[in-house]
């Protein structure tokens, strides 16, 4: 055989082997891809790991006095690793599983011992590494479960896996629930697109409250479930959200809700709302909204005070008369013929008739306002502005009644103030606007206008939040935004305040709201409302409202009450008036700055209130404000013991852990935070236990757990 032939044979052989190997590779690839593809895909999924978000605990929402309105509490989901290190051997598992099943059954009471035993044995048989035991377990329950047989073998040996979750609770339940709101969620619009929805303070301040999510390494197991790799611990700890300090006063909120609901039950109205605002600051102290439910009860469903714009009725006459006086069209002694409380107003138009409740004839502008004469308001405005109605509407726009308040809570209703350029403007519009029709305002928008009169003409937007705090340090502070520094001249302002007081002293509010303890200024409003698509129709529906402020001589609070479609009696003075009076009475009696007619006296044998450990200056300040002075009477002498109060500062050596037992949550967080430690709080009330005892030395930045009860 020649050398050339020999070389060619070797080349052909090598090339053939390469082709054969390449073919085998292709065949194997096809086999893996198409024949065994599902098998390997399932294995990949089963063995995959992924970092998943751990939701941060949302920040708290506090009331104006520090009461907790909304908070996040830890809640746990319990799972069990059936192949944990301590129970790898069957004899250990079989020896204790009966006792574990009995303990679970007795403790939770949701299944019998036999059912728990069957579940645990089946999970053991299947080699389940993440068997669900129980959802929604509290921290106190978790502490008890950790002492059960098998689980008491330790964190890793016993197989118990506790996955922490956060549950949002409202300590006062339905108190201001709609204003507090709830976390943003995704809703689907008419086009099928997902959109964020923000409700109440929870939604408006979500960027602050939500905090920063952590990360937890999770592994996919059989059945598509995910289990934590490190027994529930986070690889990156979540950062708790900031706290919101709202303007709501829990006591006044409770009073407002009770008074409104009582009237709603009596009148069987469709819905109603109340808003109480502090005059000088614009801070909303109480806001209540009730909707009639199918079973005849009332619950908070919609925030009518903020989001529902309707025709206000006679409460709008404040703007009407303010414009007339400001432009010198009339004065308080100007008279008008009300024609017996029934007038056509427009010359030559007999179809349009304005009516009054009273049979009024010739009356003054002052009396017309106090008696809420629709005829007088319509005729005054028509006579003054029919040649150029824009003079009237321009004045309303100068009050910013056509502008939204731009509130911090989303969902504000849009106001409507017509002008002669509006498509729906007609000859009837001008006189009807005079007594509160053909325009729309929300209750809060109307309250803001009345509050401006009480606030010496300065119109400010209502606010619901005062501060944002993180770790008890102020991050941001909020003040009311000035909408209009002066809505009218001092002369007009003085007249309007006098007229508003006259409504209560001599007018429509006299029999219900007038009292001997404090003065009230305000205006009743009874409006007929449209009955759905049927318009005003033959079946009449009404809205009763009262808006005003008190004490009239030095206003501190303004308030609006609106009750829609009461059954039977519908006049504002008899429906909205009692609600206003009941709330104002309670506010006046509880506010020491307003109610100083009776000197405060403290009698003997009274004990001092209990106080928690903390800042003694704060305690002394509270005692000083309350004027606490216990006296122990004697037949021979009176012994003053007020100097016997003993206070002690919380002291700790720098670099050591402070002792915070006996403190409230705020003080404990403040002390430990300033000392440089991260704090996890469990429970509520007073600190009874801390994970690291006071005086111990641990690095700054370490995590401490405190338990409160």
TrEMBL record:
CDD domains: PASTA_Pbp2x-like_2. Keywords: Carboxypeptidase, Hydrolase, Membrane, Protease. Transmembrane segments: none annotated. The keyword Hydrolase applies. Residues 651-709 form the PASTA domain. It is found in: Membrane. GO terms for cellular component: plasma membrane. The keyword Hydrolase applies. It comes from the Bacteria. GO terms for molecular function: carboxypeptidase activity; penicillin binding. GO terms for biological process: cell wall organization. PROSITE patterns: PASTA. Coiled coil: none annotated. InterPro entries: Beta-lactam/transpept, Beta-lactam/transpept-like, PASTA_dom, PBP_dimer, PBP_dimer_sf, PCN-bd_Tpept. PANTHER family: PEPTIDOGLYCAN D,D-TRANSPEPTIDASE, PEPTIDOGLYCAN D,D-TRANSPEPTIDASE FTSI. This is PASTA domain-containing protein. It comes from Mucilaginibacter ginsenosidivorans.
């Amino acid at each position: 055989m020649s050398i050339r032939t020999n070389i060619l044979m070797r080349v052909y052989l090598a090339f053939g082997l390469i082709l054969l190997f390449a073919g085998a590779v292709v065949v194997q690839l096809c086999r893996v891809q198409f024949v065994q593809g599902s098998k390997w895909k399932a294995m990949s999924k089963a063995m995959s790991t992924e970092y998943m978000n751990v939701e941060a605990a949302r920040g708290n929402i506090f009331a104006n006095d520090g009461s907790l309105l909304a908070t996040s509490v830890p809640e746990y989901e319990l799972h069990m690793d059936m192949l944990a290190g301590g129970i790898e051997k069957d004899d250990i598992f079989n020896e204790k599983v009966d006792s574990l099943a009995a303990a679970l059954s007795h403790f939770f009471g949701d299944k019998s011992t036999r059912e728990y035993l069957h579940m645990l044995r089946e999970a053991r048989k299947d080699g389940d590494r993440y068997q669900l035991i129980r959802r929604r377990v509290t921290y106190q329950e978790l502490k008890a479960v950790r002492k059960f047989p098998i689980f008491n073998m330790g964190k890793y040996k016993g197989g118990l896996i506790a996955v922490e979750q956060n549950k949002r609770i409202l300590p006062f339940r339905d108190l201001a629930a709609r204003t507090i709101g709830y976390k943003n969620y995704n809703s689907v619009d008419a086009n099928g697109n997902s959109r964020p929805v923000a409700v109440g303070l929870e939604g408006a301040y979500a960027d602050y409250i939500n905090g920063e999510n952590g990360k937890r390494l999770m592994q996919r197991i059989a059945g598509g479930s995910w289990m934590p790799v490190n027994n529930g611990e986070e690889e990156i700890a979540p950062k708790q959200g900031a706290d919101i300090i709202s303007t709501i006063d829990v006591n006044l909120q409770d009073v407002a809700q009770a008074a409104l609901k009582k009237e709603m039950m009596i009148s069987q109205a469709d819905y109603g709302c109340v808003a109480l605002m502090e005059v000088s600051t614009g801070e909303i102290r109480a806001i209540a909204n009730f909707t009639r439910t199918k079973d005849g009860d009332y619950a908070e469903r919609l925030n009518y005070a903020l989001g529902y714009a309707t025709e206000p009725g006679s409460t709008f006459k404040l703007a009407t008369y303010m414009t007339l006086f400001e432009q010198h069209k009339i004065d308080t002694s100007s008279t008008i013929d009300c024609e017996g409380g029934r007038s056509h107003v427009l010359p030559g138009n007999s179809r349009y008739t304005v009516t009054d409740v009273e049979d009024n004839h010739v009356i003054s502008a002052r009396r017309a306002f106090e008696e809420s004469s629709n005829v007088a308001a319509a005729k005054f405005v028509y006579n003054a502005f029919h040649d150029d109605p824009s003079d009237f509407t321009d004045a309303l726009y100068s009050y910013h009644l056509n502008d939204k308040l731009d509130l911090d809570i989303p969902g504000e209703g849009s106001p409507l103030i017509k002008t002669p350029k509006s498509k729906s403007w007609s000859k009837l519009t001008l006189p009807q606007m005079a007594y509160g029709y053909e325009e729309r305002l929300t209750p809060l928008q109307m309250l803001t206008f009345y509050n401006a009169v009480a606030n010496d003409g300065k119109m400010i937007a209502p606010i619901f939040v005062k501060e944002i705090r993180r770790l008890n340090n102020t991050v941001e502070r909020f003040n009311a935004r000035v909408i209009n520094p002066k809505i009218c001249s001092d002369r007009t302002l003085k007249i309007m305040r006098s007229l508003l007081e006259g409504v209560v002293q001599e007018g429509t509010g006299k029999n219900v709201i007038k009292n001997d303890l404090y003065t009230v200024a305000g205006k009743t409003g009874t409006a007929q409302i449209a009955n759905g698509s049927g318009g005003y129709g033959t079946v009449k529906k009404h809205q009763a409202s009262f808006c005003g402020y008190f004490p009239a001589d030095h206003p501190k609070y303004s308030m609006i009450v609106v009750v829609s479609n009461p059954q039977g009696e519908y006049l504002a003075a008899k429906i909205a008036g009692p609600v206003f009076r009941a709330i104002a009475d309670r506010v006046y009696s509880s506010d020491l700055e307003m109610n100083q007619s009776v000197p405060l006296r403290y009698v003997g044998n009274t004990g001092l209130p209990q106080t928690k450990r903390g800042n003694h200056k704060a305690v002394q300040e509270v005692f000083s404000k309350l004027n606490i002075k216990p006296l122990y009477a004697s037949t021979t002498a009176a012994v003053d013991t007020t100097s016997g109060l003993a206070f002690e500062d919380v002291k700790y050596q720098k670099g050591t852990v402070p002792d915070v037992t006996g403190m409230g949550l705020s003080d404990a967080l403040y002390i430990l935070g300033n000392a440089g430690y991260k704090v996890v709080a469990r429970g509520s009330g007073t600190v009874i236990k801390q994970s690291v005892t006071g005086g111990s030395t641990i690095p700054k930045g370490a995590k401490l757990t405190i338990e409160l009860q």
